[in-house]
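U., I forgot to send this yesterday:
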Amino acid sequence: MSLTGEEMAAGFLNVLKPPGMSSHDVVGAARKIFGVKRVGHAGTLDPAAAGVLPVAVGRAARFIEYLSAVDKSYIAELKLGEETDSGDDTGQVVAKKENFSLPTLEEIEAALAQFRGQIRQTPPAHSAIKIQGQRAYDLTRKQEAVTMPEREVTISRLELTAYRPEAKKLLLSLDCSKGTYVRSLCRDIGRALGIPATMSFLVRTRVGDFSLAASFTLEEIKSHGQEALMPPETCLSHLPRVELPLSRRPAFCRGLGTTLREKQLDAPLLVFGGSEFWGVGSYNSRTGELKPTKVFISE
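Result:
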């Protein structure tokens, strides 16, 4: 089915991205299903990876930026014996070790312990990070030397969920902050074990409030149509909420501020009038005024 009209189709989709499809391809498919141009996604997934990809449709697309800071969860398969330049099994092998003693469970746990909490990691050169205005993977394809800057990320949970010594594979489950490269994490765990390693598969199981259990394939979304769309406010529960008097609705729609008595409010804020979601606003503690940042409703 195909739906038309920016006003009709407005909300978030919890897409189950399949392997072999890029995040951009998913956005293109959503445009065709709902007949709208304004579609965006949060948290790019590599084409080879699968799992949760939040997609915003129509007027909801203006709120996609507020998902950039949420934490994420993954299940990753790590294969011992080879390290690649991309960090996954699509890259060129840069280090290989055929004869090595398989690590014990105690050795694996000791290695994993080094990567819990705040850590520093170097993203792979095969990534979308910009270096002097150009994507790192574009520079790499041109065979230009790329020096990737280190970054600090947080791994709040990292567990070994399965160990297959005969296949030289570990299955890891983790929760992490934005900006974490699981490919780099797998590479670094291998180095901590003294064995080259690469990520052989990745499934993203959660992005903020978006879970794998509640995700839909594109085929299911096409079948459900607008029923698959979730209101923006239900997907942004990590933002604090504030309620304005219903009389301020016209002013909020016009971008005018409202004076509040609160001494301190975090920004951005989900703004409601009763049970109706109006949009996102910011609060100036100096002036005591809340101003609209992104307006969802119309007069």
